Amino acid sequence: MSIMDYNGGALIGMKGKDCVAIATDKRFGIQAQTVSLDFTKVFQINPHTYMGFPGLATDIFTVYEKIMFRKRLYELKENRKISPKALASLVSNLLYENRFSPFFVEPMIVALDEVTLEPYMCDMDLIGCVNKSDNFVVGGTSSSQLYGLCEALWEPDMEEDQLFETISQALVSACNRDAISGWGAKVYIIKKDKIIVRDIKTRMD
Amino acid sequence: MAMLSLCGLSDDTLFKSKCEVEENEAFETFQSDNTVNQMNLYSLPGNPVENMRMITARDTMGRPIELNFHHGTTTLGFLYQGGIVLAVDSRATGGQYIGSQCMKKIVEINDFMLGTLAGGAADCVYWDRVLSKQCRLHELRNKERISVTAASKIMSNMIYYYKGYGLSIGMMLAGYDKNGPSLFYIDNDGSRTPGKVFSVGSGSIYAFGVLDSGYKWDLTDEEAQKLGQRAIFHATHRDAYSGGIVRVYHITKDGWKHIKNEDCDEIYDRVKNEAK
Amino acid sequence: MDTIIDRGAPKARNFEPYASNGGSIVAISGKDFAIVASDTRLSEGYMIYTRKQSKLFQLSDKSVLGCTGCWCDTLSLTNIIQSQLKSYLYDHNTIMQPNSIAQLLSTLLYSRRFFPYYVYNVLAGLDSNGEGCLYSYDPVGHCEKVNYTAGGSSGVLMQPFLDSWLGNRTAENPVTEEEALSLVKDAFTAAGERDIYTGDEVVYNIIKKDGIKTGVVQLRKD
């Protein structure tokens, strides 16, 4: 078992029409043992900027704190909110600094640009290779399942409701085929005027 | 052949043709051996576990082979005043991937005997099938049903023959015979233990927690069935490799009876509402 | 004279009998039909050997076996099954029913428990009542009767998709032939986008009372 699969988890980001969504499962486990049912791996960085962290739970918090530290310094220096693109570079740099003893997380950024409100989405590997995406990003132990589902279910220019349906369906179905993801899920829909957060029910076994 | 020339025998001796007959017979039965004799499995020379590790280490392109056999389980069984209750989950996993959510982990060996399976799915199902054939043969030869003790001994002997070959089996054999109800635990090390309360599989530690706290000899039938179901349900909740449907069986002097199948999802909702 | 040819340290050579030749199978059964489909790409590593190799093997007029994984094992296994079926036919003067073939296949796979066939099998057929039936296997012969399944290199990608469409079906709302075929196409199209071992074409067999219908759908070729 790879260290990336130690805690389990599934994440997706998806692009819709003038909105983006990010979804996470809630399981925190130690290999086969389910420890907590309220461990969301998604964090708000700015009002319209969210990040998801699939990977090793301990590194999730470390990396998140480090990102926030650098992001705050950036914003103090520049006196403006960080753009998702700049954030991606910032995270990428941070991860690459540890090229030979990496953090075991593969962060994804799902955001609307704070100024232009352009949707932006990317994910990266654990040493910070940014992979920008125009449709969806996936991560976690059930990424194969999620890729299959997203390829089949995703379509361009989905409205908010349809986006919610699609992302939920993808996450739930993927978790049902992965032993170490699931136990509840949370979906965030990011629109220009509001953020909608919904809990969704999944199997609890 | 070397033996022949060493003995100075000519090519057309009787001895040689007998050799050839044996060789041909061996060749003919080679591919279909276990369709004729189920207890005879093909294996490479050398240590079977070491061989398995070696042949699955990498493919011709140097990538590791992913031979994901189906695995995982929580099963339990206990004896009480009203007979035996068996309860199992239904998930089969290959690595972290859930191969099936509705696998049948209780095998009906005859009308009075059930086997539960944990470990390698193919190992358990195959050997249970061989066992039920042996039990039926016993019945035909001796004009009476086989006792659970005898059946469990057959099973553990068969498994013991392949000890060290890397089989993965943890089964319970439960049934009702002329000596009353009995329950055996058998595993791939060759151990065979009679007992009152067993739980086997990756989720057994969680199941035992519930089972031990609720178990007593004087349980009513309904209480016993509920306890079995609940223990499995809680195990599926905490153990990643258990889940799906909880199946409950009950064995009395009239044979086994399938009590119910209930989806873990439904049990979860019910238990949650009960707690409120 | 003093030159010593450096041949390096002695190397251990392992026995590597398996190749991963890729390929995927999807199968769905319905009330009076069973559909089984495979892609036609045969590859190894980054090399494509052929774009025209179906992984479906017709065993009788009512059953088709889909078999992927190590291609040499596939060929060897399907040959053995076909010869066993012939013996059965000559011994009993009847064609073996799919449920019996299912058990035979399980036993044959298990005979190699300690040197497994590196293959994923799906057996599709029509049972004695004329209803579609499907059996899916792991490499050592654990057999399960299912209503739909996806296996092979893209099995992980396609199975949850099939779950989301077919997981909650009841007897009142059975899957139709057209729907099944379109699901098969969608599943393969999605898998072809992300799995390099699945692509080129999908060949499908629809098994019905009056025979087996074959068709081909194009996939991406890159």
TrEMBL record, chain A:
GO cellular component terms listed in the entry, alphabetical order: cytoplasm; nucleus; proteasome core complex, beta-subunit complex
Compartments, record wording: Cytoplasm; Nucleus
Domain of life: Eukaryota
InterPro entries in the cross-refs: Ntn_hydrolases_N, Proteasome_beta_3, Proteasome_bsu_CS, Proteasome_sua/b, Proteasome_suB-type
Keywords, sorted A to Z: Cytoplasm, Nucleus, Proteasome
One matching Pfam family: Proteasome
SUPFAM superfamilies: N-terminal nucleophile aminohydrolases (Ntn hydrolases)
GO biological process: proteasome-mediated ubiquitin-dependent protein catabolic process
Gene3D superfamilies: Glutamine Phosphoribosylpyrophosphate, subunit 1, domain 1
Protein family membership: Belongs to the peptidase T1B family.
Assembly and oligomerization: Component of the proteasome complex. The 26S proteasome consists of a 20S proteasome core and two 19S regulatory subunits. The 20S proteasome core is composed of 28 subunits that are arranged in four stacked rings, resulting in a barrel-shaped structure. The two end rings are each formed by seven alpha subunits, and the two central rings are each formed by seven beta subunits. The catalytic chamber with the active sites is on the inside of the barrel.
Function, as annotated: Non-catalytic component of the proteasome, a multicatalytic proteinase complex which is characterized by its ability to cleave peptides with Arg, Phe, Tyr, Leu, and Glu adjacent to the leaving group at neutral or slightly basic pH. The proteasome has an ATP-dependent proteolytic activity.
Protein name per its UniProtKB record: Proteasome subunit beta
UniProtKB/TrEMBL annotation, chain B:
Subcellular localization: Cytoplasm; Nucleus
One Gene Ontology cellular component annotation held by this UniProt entry: proteasome core complex
Xref: InterPro entries: Ntn_hydrolases_N, Pept_T1A_subB, Proteasome_bsu_CS, Proteasome_sua/b, Proteasome_suB-type
One Pfam family named in its UniProt record: Proteasome
Positions of the catalytic residues: T73
Principal localisation: cytoplasm
Single GO molecular function: threonine-type endopeptidase activity
Stored SUPFAM superfamilies: N-terminal nucleophile aminohydrolases (Ntn hydrolases)
Keywords: Cytoplasm, Hydrolase, Nucleus, Protease, Proteasome, Threonine protease, Zymogen
Role summary: Component of the proteasome, a multicatalytic proteinase complex which is characterized by its ability to cleave peptides with Arg, Phe, Tyr, Leu, and Glu adjacent to the leaving group at neutral or slightly basic pH. The proteasome has an ATP-dependent proteolytic activity.
Quaternary structure annotation from Swiss-Prot or TrEMBL: Component of the proteasome complex. The 26S proteasome consists of a 20S proteasome core and two 19S regulatory subunits. The 20S proteasome core is composed of 28 subunits that are arranged in four stacked rings, resulting in a barrel-shaped structure. The two end rings are each formed by seven alpha subunits, and the two central rings are each formed by seven beta subunits. The catalytic chamber with the active sites is on the inside of the barrel.
Protein name stated in the entry: Proteasome subunit beta
Natural source organism: Macrosiphum euphorbiae
Automatic annotation (TrEMBL), chain C:
Cellular localization per UniProt: Nucleus
Taxonomic superkingdom: Eukaryota
Chief place where the protein resides: nucleus
Segments forming a coiled coil: none
A GO BP annotation: proteolysis involved in protein catabolic process
Signal peptide location: none
One protein family per Pfam: Proteasome
Keywords: Cytoplasm, Nucleus, Proteasome
Transmembrane segments: none
GO CC terms of this entry: cytoplasm; nucleus; proteasome core complex
Record note on quaternary structure: The 26S proteasome consists of a 20S proteasome core and two 19S regulatory subunits. The 20S proteasome core is composed of 28 subunits that are arranged in four stacked rings, resulting in a barrel-shaped structure. The two end rings are each formed by seven alpha subunits, and the two central rings are each formed by seven beta subunits. The catalytic chamber with the active sites is on the inside of the barrel.
Protein name as it appears in the record: Proteasome subunit beta type
Organism of origin: Macrosiphum euphorbiae
Record lineage: Eukaryota, Metazoa, Ecdysozoa, Arthropoda, Hexapoda
